[in-house]
Amino acid sequence: MIYIDIEHKILTSEGSRILSVKTELPDNKFICISGPSGIGKTTLLKMIAGLIKPDWGIIQMGDCIFFDSLNNINISPQKRNIGFMFQDYALFPHMTVEENISFAQNKVKDKAWVDTLIKSYGLEALRKQKPNKLSGGQKQRTALARTLAKKADILLLDEPLSSVDSTMRIKLQNEILKTHADFGSTTLLVSHDQDEVNKMGQCVLQLGYDQIRSIKNY
Ligand SMILES: Nc1ncnc2c1ncn2[C@@H]1O[C@H](COP(=O)(O)OP(=O)(O)OP(=O)(O)O)[C@@H](O)[C@H]1O
Predict the structure, then answer these.
(1) What is the pLDDT of residue 218?
(2) Is 11 in the pocket of ligand 1 (CB under 6 A)?
(3) ipTM of the assembly?
(4) What pairing do the DSSP bridges indicate for beta strands 64-68 and 73-74?
């Protein structure tokens, strides 16, 4: 189970607000996160990944406390065994598609799994290309394959299919679900597409305006 009870100051167009999230997410499930733009979905994923430090609270994965403000615990992102894919992809420009995907596996390389991902995500013809030669959708597919290459305990996917066409989107939804069925990583996927949420989510975390409150009450 991932236990989250956090508060964090965010800067919105209406000024400073407090994002407040308290929830328990079950292990090994496919969890979709939805909610209006700017509500804090990306911020929440970054706090779970350890890339943003919440102002207050606890984030716990099973027995492992990732973050506890009262006890001054803040495990580094590298020690959380999380695979994350954010909206800017962050591909290494000097590496090919294949090298980008393989790099995610750290020390223990599994070339067969890299090859499977390259095939599943339609990247065979692009294997030796560098990111500057790729379209937006091709970069997105590379970033997705790279995230899955690591076989992490938790996968955080921030709108991973927003730049691919509808046919490719359905194919890749099925590939992501197959990977989840094979490895059972607890997966959090942010999506604005209600059909996608209905199809993929075994449960849904809905963020809404009740999670945001005025700074005056903080
Ligand atoms: N580093 C930061 N510090 C403080 N506030 C931030 C920071 N980054 C983003 N914000 C603010 O936090 C709020 C939530 O942003 P976030 O990107 O998490 O929303 P989102 O729900 O993922 O939006 P979208 O669906 O448009 O991607 C926004 O108002 C944004 O301006």
Answers:
(1) 41
(2) yes
(3) 0.92
(4) antiparallel
